[in-house]
TrEMBL record:
InterPro entries: FAD/NAD-bd_sf, HdrA-like. Pfam families: FAD_oxidored (PF12831). This is FAD dependent oxidoreductase. Keywords: 4Fe-4S, Iron, Iron-sulfur, Metal-binding, Oxidoreductase.
Length: 444
């Protein structure tokens, strides 16, 4: 195995995939390291589905670039219908996709970009000298090996690289470090989606207030949020206040997002062990509830569960700028913008049942500044995905998959630019970075 690269990307989720492709397309020698046997991060490991959202509330697309290319290439293979209206009205669009095809497409796109991939590999140590990462150490079935690079990108989701390097990190809420709950997602087959849609049209008071009931007869059902009455009556010991599931990818299939595991830390192995058991126990309870209480689920059964529990929030970096709730809600423009998003702040309560939602004002989009990708202290590290520099509240929007994809592309492009201009990530020409991102079809 080659042990010298220009750029090493750690974490093969949506951010890492797009960062590695972007850097590879800039003719850099790139290694992507992933701890599982397949790529896709939470999208495939934890069955996070569908992708939401590429658009603002009014329907303007603000995420394109490599993320949009992935959607189009999935469409060509019949593995995504593209962007569809969100039928619970929480956002404008959702993007269903087949995770099994995405796993394969991601590797093919990495190969096209000349990226080397190591799966089943876990970075657990690194060496820092003069605030510069010298190498990372990878643990695998093949033993331990050191891999060197000039530039590193942390797309681990948990800021693992930043944390190991000694860069400052934050976790959860400021006052108590509690994070959003973990969720074990699962799929069911044998679901009658037409029956569910008919029920929604007949009982609008029992569903999320923003559901587009007038358009519903003409829209394919993509998302259902509600059945408040049934959920309340069933009184399951799960701290949620509603039924939530998403249609697809198959015609009789749904992805259920209803389990809620609270007061555990996604960076502590004992907590993760507890969470896996608790999440799977809740899956059986929720599936039983759906079959017995919800019209359309009478003949349904569990077809799959996440390979691991889904993690909304864990560690994140304390970067050169911390994106705030106020920045997001005001749709505040930044001179160093490297990506946009139209997803609202969506905090699943760390304790209690509810959700704290705040919509983006103005044109419905907000800027993600480049400085949120740049950690303090370490000179050759960039961060992308869930662990960029935000407040607990702002993380509740930037954590979403399309945002992670966009920020990943920006990080890969920035790392390549830093090498080309012999600059550190904190001192690159951000205008040149923006020019390249726009040239590569990103929306700024």
């Amino acid at each position: 195995m080659d042990n010298q690269y220009d750029i090493i990307v750690v974490g093969g989720g949506p951010a890492g995939i797009n960062a590695a492709i972007a850097a590879g397309r800039k003719n850099k020698k790139v290694l992507l390291v992933e701890r599982h046997g397949f790529l896709g991060g939470m999208s495939t490991i934890a069955s996070v589905y569908p992708w939401m959202t590429f658009h603002t509330e009014s329907g303007k697309q603000v995420i394109k670039g490599i993320a949009e290319e992935i959607v189009q290439r999935l469409k060509e293979r019949g593995a995504s219908p593209g962007h569809l209206r969100d039928t619970c009205g929480f956002v404008y669009s959702v993007t269903p996709y087949d995770p099994e095809v995405y796993k394969v497409l991601a590797v093919e796109m990495l190969q096209e970009a000349g990226v080397n991939l190591l799966a089943h590999s876990f970075v657990d140590h690194l060496e820092v000298k003069d605030n510069t990462i010298q190498y990372v150490e990878i643990t695998s079935k093949s033993g331990r090996q050191k891999v060197y690079a000039d530039m590193f990108i942390d797309t681990s989701g948990d800021a693992d690289l930043a944390y190991l390097s000694g860069a400052p990190t934050l976790k959860g809420r400021d006052e108590d470090q509690k994070t959003q709950p973990l969720t074990m997602k699962f799929r069911m087959r044998g679901v009658n989606l037409e029956k569910i849609k008919e029920h929604m049209i007949q009982h609008p008071d029992n569903f999320f207030r923003k559901t587009p009931f007038e358009e519903l007869p003409d829209l394919p059902l993509t998302a259902v949020q509600g059945f408040y009455k049934e959920w309340k009556e069933a009184n399951l010991p799960i701290n949620r206040d509603q039924v939530l599931f998403f249609a697809g990818p198959a015609k009789d299939e749904v992805l259920v997002n209803m389990t809620r595991v609270q007061d555990l830390d996604g960076t502590q192995i004992e907590d993760l062990t507890k969470a896996e058991y608790e999440g799977r126990k809740q899956v059986l309870m929720v599936a039983d509830f759906l079959i017995n209480w919800i019209p359309g689920f009478e003949n349904a059964s569990i077809s799959s569960t996440g390979a691991q529990i889904g993690i909304r929030e864990s560690r994140r970096i304390q970067g050169e700028y911390i994106l705030s709730k106020e920045d997001v809600i005001a749709g505040r423009p930044f001179e160093d913008v490297i990506a946009k998003s139209g997803y609202p702040i969506d905090i699943h309560a760390p304790s209690g049942k509810g959700m704290d939602i705040a919509w983006v004002e103005g044109d419905g989009s907000f800027d993600i500044p480049y400085r949120t990708l740049v950690p303090k202290k370490i000179t050759n590290l960039l961060v992308a995905g869930r662990c960029i520099s935000t407040s607990h509240e702002a993380l509740a929007t930037t954590r979403l998959t399309p945002s992670a994809m966009a920020v990943g592309q920006a990080a890969g492009t920035a790392a390549a630019l830093a090498l080309e201009t012999n600059a550190s990530p904190s001192s690159i020409d951000v205008r040149e970075l923006q020019r390249q991102l726009v040239e590569d079809e990103m929306v700024l």
